[in-house]
Amino acid sequence: MGISIIISHYEPDAKRRYFRGLLKRTIDSIRNQDFESEIEIILCDDGSSWSECETNDTEIVHLQKEAVVCHQWLNDLDIDQYLYIDSGPNYWAIRLKHMAFGIAKHENILVLDDDHPFLSRYAVKKYNSY
């Protein structure tokens, strides 16, 4: 049985490199897990300035793996799905997560912030055993 991991992310323009580095470290810690089943990563982006997605204020953009690898601002992240909405009221991040739960491939779901990498290679295995 696989697991879907939803990552909440926002990258302000002022510290793009710093926050991008945190996100990449978290994704790397997920991809390096000692876990026998599939791990799906869904990135929920609440209006990062680097995103090239065209959207109106309330529309959620959803890119799946095939589209993610075609976009140069995403193809180095090794994610399976990307959800984006322009930065707005605080509750918009909740809309992204709600949609992520609906599109997740797996019944077991873990939610992380972009600055919370796993410290152990066995974290997902341990979580899944519960």
Whole-number mean pLDDT: 85
The proportion of residues in beta strands is 15-25%
CA-to-CA gap between the ends?
A: 13 Å
Number of helices: 4
Helix content: 25-40%
Largest sheet: 5 strands, mixed
Instruction: Sketch the topology as an H/E string, one letter per element.
Output: EHEEHEHEH
Outline: globular
Radius of gyration: 14 Å
Uncertain segments? none
Largest sheet strand order? 3-4-2-1-5
In total, how many beta strands?
5
Based on secondary structure, the structural category is alpha/beta
Textual characterization of the structure:
- There is one protein chain.
- This protein has 130 residues and is α/β, with parallel strands linked by helices.
- Helix content is 30%, strand content 22%.
- The protein has helices at residues 16-31, 65-68, 92-103, 123-129, and strands at 3-9, 39-45, 61-64, 81-84, 108-113.
- It has a 5-stranded mixed beta sheet, sandwiched between helices.
- The model has no long low-confidence stretch (mean pLDDT 85).
Briefly summarize what is shown:
This protein is α/β, with parallel strands linked by helices. The chain has helices at residues 16-31, 65-68, 92-103, 123-129; strands spanning 3-9, 39-45, 61-64, 81-84, 108-113.
Task: Give the SSE layout.
Layout: E1 3-9, H1 16-31, E2 39-45, E3 61-64, H2 65-68, E4 81-84, H3 92-103, E5 108-113, H4 123-129
Parallel strand pairs: 1-2, 1-5, 2-4
Antiparallel strand pairs: 3-4
